[in-house]
Structure formats: structure tokens, C-alpha cells
Design brief:
Number of strands: 12
Structural class: alpha/beta
Radius of gyration: 22 Å
Oligomer: single chain
Order of helices and strands: EHEEEHEHEHEEEHEHEHEHHHHHHHH
Number of domains: 2
CATH superfamily of the largest domain: NAD(P)-binding Rossmann-like Domain
CATH topology of the largest domain: Rossmann fold
Distance between the termini: 60 Å
Strand content: 5-15%
């Protein structure tokens, strides 16, 4: 084991007997762990940076539970790859560290990295999906072939939404539920930077599910002295926040790339939160929308964290330095060029494809295998607003989202970011 490996177990204020306590919820919780007929067996699907941090947190928590209704082993599905000539799963299981995606952080002994998805899913009845959304379809196809009992509890940590070919919004919890034919899927979102959670920094997360029993079980796996799990039945807002906060982070990144002050960045974040709230209300599909949901970790806290420390902000700042500033110096571009959306006014000097390539280069240079989600989330948000007819009926709404879309997708001048200030 490396001498620099941070075991972080226990931390000075991390008391084992208080590892799992009743999460603060709207009804009196009992965690249900002692009342379940079937033993809980947890599996984490995804062994990247965030997946490894989640497995670590759950592993420590369940190992300190005395309840006979929960299996202390946590299975972690890791896509097998070679790292310095050895299988990554072998390194995790022997060195107790994900040296590629979460280096320097101790993985507890009861977390077992497994390269076979079938072996991970088999006999597990709580599945936590922690992966980029682009990997989900292939994973779901494999799990469908294995087959799951409908009582299996699933939880989506996947930030983003999908827009169908018909322009309809599909949340990833619904996609998992439909594809796997399970009864209940929760969503877990919040201001949860993987390295912060892995190093036991105090944080909060939001667990959402219409079913109160399921959200309490899922929250119970995470809630501890240094990770406060909030719960709500407003799952639509929670998942939409997970996508839309990345759009706001693009705007914050543009501010940083332009080296603007904190007052400007705060104005962008405030306007972004206002538009997030309206978007969640417009596209609520559950009838559970609550404005106060944005005050939970999944809302304002996640926007702040992402707008100051997230990879979407980081890449947006680089996009501004690498492309926008040069484009602004050229004085814009040809008026006739632009994209197919009504949001592209044609001021960008390059094609939409050229802008996409710039983003791909930045992603490759700066994220080292992780995925940039903000640009695709921005595109999807505008597609939903256009195809639903909402923008046609309300042409002055969502000015910031539309400005960010014009900049990030069509390469228009960074001055577009502040056009929303003139909307009435």
C-alpha cells in the first residue's frame, strides 16, 4: 500500500456508532433496516471517480451496522481495464485504492471490485447507478438479460436528462424503471464533489423518490455525521436540477474565463437559479413540484459547488480563453453562418461542428477520461423549450439559458452572456 494513501477511517469527528443515523425527513424515519424481510445487498454500478467514492461511503456505513438485515459486503462493478500492466479490479482489491480514478483514498475491505456485471447484479437487491449517462444504455441492456425481481431498489446518481426523438423529456430514474421493470427508482443528487466525499469533508446530498420507504432506505445507506442525507418526494425537480446546474456552471465559467468579478458571477448564478426553478415547474411530470426543493443540496448548493469548482465551470473557462476571447478580438463572424436552432442568430464565426470539436479537445485535455455534461444539457434544455412550444408562447423567458446556448453551441460572442439583463 502506498505510504501516501489516505485511509480516512475514522476521522476525528466520524464516530462509528453514529455512522448511520436517522436522516432528516418529512415523516418520522425508522430506516426500515431492521424490519425488512429480505437482507439488503448493495451493489454500486460504476467504478469511476464518483462511483468509487460512493462505494467507499456505503462500505464504511454498512460495516458499522449491527443489523442482521444488511449484508456488509458492497459489490462494485468496475469496467475492467489495465493500469500499469495489471487489471484495475485486482489493484483495487489488493491495494484498497482505485489508483486511476480515486488515487490516494482508502477503499474499505468490505468493498469488492468485480469486472463482471452479471456477478455484481446477481443476488443484489439495491443497485446504485453511478456512471456517465452515455454508458447507461449498454449497462441496462446487460442487466435486462440477467433479469431483476421487480422489488429491486435502484437509485440513479446520473446527472442529466434525455430528450426523445419526439422531443419528450425522459429522466434517468424513469429510464431505469422502464428498462429494468422495477417498482421503485430513487434519485440521489447534490453538491457532492467526489474527492470531498472521499475525504470525509462535511457535505449534504438529496435523496428523492415518490415512495417514502424507498427513499429512507437509500438515505440510510449514506447518512452519517459528515454526509447529511435530505429526502423529498419531488424527484422530477431533483433530477432536473442535476442537469440544469451544469448549464449555469457554463455561464459561471465564462465569467471566470473573462476574469470578471464575483458580483458578475453571482448575478449569473442568481439568474440561473431563477430559470432552473421555472424550468422544473414547466416540465414537472409527477405533480410533486415544490419551489423549496431548490433550497436543498440538489439545488442552490449544487449550483454553487459546480459554479466554483466543477469540471463544467473549468472547461467553460478554458473555452472562453481558448476560443471566445480570440473570436471577440476578431469582431464576430459572418452574419449568414449559424446553426439550425432558432437560438442561433448567426453571429458565430465558425460552424456548430467546429465549436463541438473545440469542446471535445478541451474535454480530452482537461478531464482525463471524465465527461463534460454542460453543453449537451444546454442543448437538451433548449430543444425541450422549443419543441414544447414554450419559447414561442413566452419569448422573453429563459434569457440566460438561451444566451449560454448561443455561446456554447454556436460560438457567439461572450457579450451574449449578459443580453439577459435587457429582457423584460
Amino acid at each position: 500500500m502506498k505510504g501516501s494513501l489516505s485511509m480516512r477511517q475514522p476521522r476525528r469527528y466520524y464516530l462509528p456508532h453514529q455512522s448511520i443515523i436517522s436522516p432528516p425527513v418529512e415523516e418520522k424515519p425508522n430506516l426500515l433496516l431492521d424490519k425488512l424481510k429480505n437482507k439488503i445487498k448493495v451493489a454500486v454500478i460504476g467504478g469511476g471517480n464518483w462511483g468509487s467514492a460512493v462505494a467507499r461511503k456505503v462500505g464504511f456505513n454498512v460495516s458499522q451496522l449491527a443489523s442482521p438485515t444488511i449484508d456488509h459486503q458492497v459489490k462494485l462493478w468496475v469496467y475492467e481495464e489495465q493500469y500499469e500492466g495489471k487489471p484495475l479490479t485486482e489493484i483495487i482489491n489488493t491495494q484498497r485504492e482505485n489508483v486511476k480514478y480515486l488515487p490516494g483514498v482508502y477503499i474499505p475491505q468490505n468493498v469488492k471490485a468485480i469486472p463482471s456485471l452479471a456477478d455484481v447484479v446477481r443476488d443484489s437487491n439495491v443497485l446504485l447507478f453511478v456512471m456517465p449517462h452515455s454508458f447507461l444504455p449498454a449497462v441496462l441492456r446487460q442487466i435486462k438479460q440477467i433479469g431483476l425481481p421487480s422489488s429491486t431498489i435502484c437509485a440513479s446518481f446520473i446527472k442529466g436528462v434525455q430528450v426523445s426523438s419526439g422531443g419528450e423529456l425522459r429522466r434517468y430514474s424513469d429510464i431505469i424503471k422502464e428498462e429494468l421493470q422495477v417498482d421503485h427508482v430513487a434519485a440521489v443528487m447534490g453538491a457532492n464533489v467526489a474527492n470531498d466525499i472521499a475525504h470525509d469533508s462535511f457535505a449534504e446530498t438529496t435523496v428523492a423518490c415518490v415512495d417514502a420507504e424507498v427513499r429512507q432506505i437509500v438515505a440510510g445507506l449514506f447518512h452519517s455525521q459528515n454526509l447529511r442525507a435530505q429526502t423529498t418526494d419531488d424527484i422530477s425537480t431533483v433530477e432536473l436540477c442535476g442537469a440544469l446546474k451544469n448549464v449555469v456552471a457554463l455561464g459561471a465559467g465564462i465569467c471566470d474565463g473573462l476574469e470578471l468579478g464575483s458580483s458578475t458571477k453571482a448575478a449569473v448564478i442568481r439568474q440561473g437559479l431563477e430559470e432552473m426553478s421555472l424550468f422544473c415547474k414547466v416540465f414537472d411530470s409527477t405533480g410533486k413540484y415544490k419551489p423549496d426543493t431548490l433550497l436543498l443540496s440538489c439545488g442552490v448548493a449544487d449550483v454553487i459547488a459546480t459554479s466554483y469548482g466543477g469540471r463544467n465551470r473549468l472547461c467553460s473557462a478554458e473555452f472562453t480563453r481558448r476560443y471566445l476571447l480570440h473570436q471577440d478580438q476578431r469582431g464576430g463572424g459572418d452574419e449568414e453562418e449559424g446553426g439550425g436552432s432558432e437560438e442561433g442568430s448567426g453571429r458565430g464565426s465558425d460552424s456548430e461542428e467546429a465549436i463541438r470539436i473545440v469542446w471535445e479537445e478541451i474535454e480530452k485535455d482537461m478531464l482525463h477520461g471524465q465527461k463534460l455534461e454542460g453543453v449537451s444539457a444546454c442543448k437538451e434544455a433548449i430543444v425541450l423549450l422549443e419543441r414544447s412550444g414554450y419559447l414561442k408562447r413566452n419569448p422573453s423567458h429563459f434569457p440566460l439559458f438561451r444566451s449560454i446556448h448561443r455561446i456554447a453551441v454556436f460560438g457567439e460572442s461572450s457579450e451574449e452572456l449578459f443580453n439577459w439583463g435587457y429582457y423584460q
